[in-house]
User: Which sequence fits this backbone?
């Protein structure tokens, strides 16, 4: 409510709201995470992001000068929908849908990567998995091939040793500008796993290692300012821009 | 009159160089829980934005990175009208902070925010 009041006040006086306040109004959860949100926060995705955070910032939150990202924001996106395909054991394939939710006016999407576990060891079995793009946005000439598990791949990739989570850049496999429209911001991945080892069901095993996406973004204040500036200039009655001649 | 102040500068600096309440950068640690943002920001837990506090000296030195306007305003306060205040002690340079946060839809976001930590102070 306070956020709405601030926004209303800003609109009233014609001043652009501050970027941090803007984000607080738009993105911050309104209350402490409860139930399902707490569940969503846990597990490998959170561990992965905490590791990424520790790599790029010290314990005071200062970005490390010697190990900087090419972008200033990384968003982890979990699948928003799952469709299991019928198949005989020991194979299981599911199609996972991801809603990219990129705001082109203020965010520039630089890179898209998928993070998935190639191997998952449980008490009764070992699970091996692969992912590939499915749907219209994928380029059939560029099949996804998992890279060999290693501690670091290039600058920005961090891998978990225990269950060999790998980060794979899929930017080049997507059509340029595929996420410009709302409809095309949906990305589908086909996730196939096979079980090795003792007998047993799949219950809960695959959901432990659902792949997730990492969106590398350049979130610019300039974008926000130009968006707000445009809105303000549209409010100017004459519609003209004042300029000063250079002597 | 202004010339007299400038001629007075070396002795003034010598006399007042140890002033404890002079404009300077101070540390202040705050937790995101205290700010009410701990449901949003996962890391870091604590944050030191720092702040600037203190009196701006009568004669502004180069170290303060004060613009010409601040120096003129100081002269006006000193020589013309004391209702015009002296320049204020405010942050000059900032550094960014990296945060890990939860968005409304449950996405986890790593982000670098510019201008979140004061690094030096100025009088302006």
Assistant:
């Amino acid at each position: 409510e306070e956020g709405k009041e601030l926004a209303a006040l800003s609109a009233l006086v014609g001043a652009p709201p501050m970027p941090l306040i803007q984000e607080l109004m738009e993105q911050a959860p309104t209350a402490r995470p409860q139930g399902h949100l707490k569940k969503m926060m846990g597990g490998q995705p959170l561990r992965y992001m905490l590791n990424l955070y520790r790599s790029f910032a010290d314990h005071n939150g200062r970005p490390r000068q010697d190990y900087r990202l090419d972008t200033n924001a990384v968003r982890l996106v979990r699948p928003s929908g799952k469709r299991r395909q019928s198949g005989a054991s020991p194979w299981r394939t599911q199609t996972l849908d991801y809603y990219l939710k990129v705001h082109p006016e203020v965010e520039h999407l630089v890179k898209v990567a998928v993070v998935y576990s190639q191997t998952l060891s449980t008490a009764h079995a070992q699970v091996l998995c692969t992912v590939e793009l499915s749907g219209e946005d994928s380029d059939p000439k560029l099949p996804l091939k998992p890279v060999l598990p290693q501690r670091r791949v290039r600058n920005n990739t961090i891998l978990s040793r225990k269950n060999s989570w790998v980060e794979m850049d899929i930017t080049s496999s997507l059509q340029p500008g595929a996420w410009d429209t709302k409809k095309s911001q949906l990305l589908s991945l086909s996730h196939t796993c096979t079980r090795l080892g003792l007998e047993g069901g799949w219950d809960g095993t695959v959901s432990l290692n659902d792949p997730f996406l990492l969106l590398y973004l350049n979130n610019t204040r300039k974008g926000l300012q130009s968006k707000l500036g445009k809105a303000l200039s549209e409010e100017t009655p004459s519609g003209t821009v004042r300029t000063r001649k250079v002597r | 009159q202004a010339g007299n102040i400038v001629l007075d500068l070396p002795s003034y600096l010598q006399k007042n160089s140890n002033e404890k309440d002079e404009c300077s950068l101070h540390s202040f640690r705050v937790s995101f829980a205290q700010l009410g943002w701990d449901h949003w920001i996962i890391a870091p837990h604590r944050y030191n934005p720092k702040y600037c506090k203190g009196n701006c000296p009568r004669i502004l030195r180069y170290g303060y990175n004060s613009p010409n306007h601040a120096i003129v305003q100081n002269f006006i306060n000193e020589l013309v009208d004391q209702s015009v205040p002296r320049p204020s002690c405010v942050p000059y340079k900032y550094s960014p902070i990296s945060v890990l946060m939860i968005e409304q839809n449950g996405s986890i976001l790593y982000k670098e925010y510019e201008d979140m930590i004061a690094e030096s102070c100025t009088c302006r």
Summary: Residues 137-161, 235-243 of chain A have pLDDT under 50 and may be disordered. Chain A touches chain B at residues 20, 24, 27-33, 36-37, 40-41, 45-46, 49-50, 52-53, 56-57, 59-63, 69, 72-78, 101, 219, 221 (CB under 8 Å). The helical segments of chain A are 2-13, 19-26, 36-41, 43-56, 221-235. The longest helix of chain A spans residues 221-235.
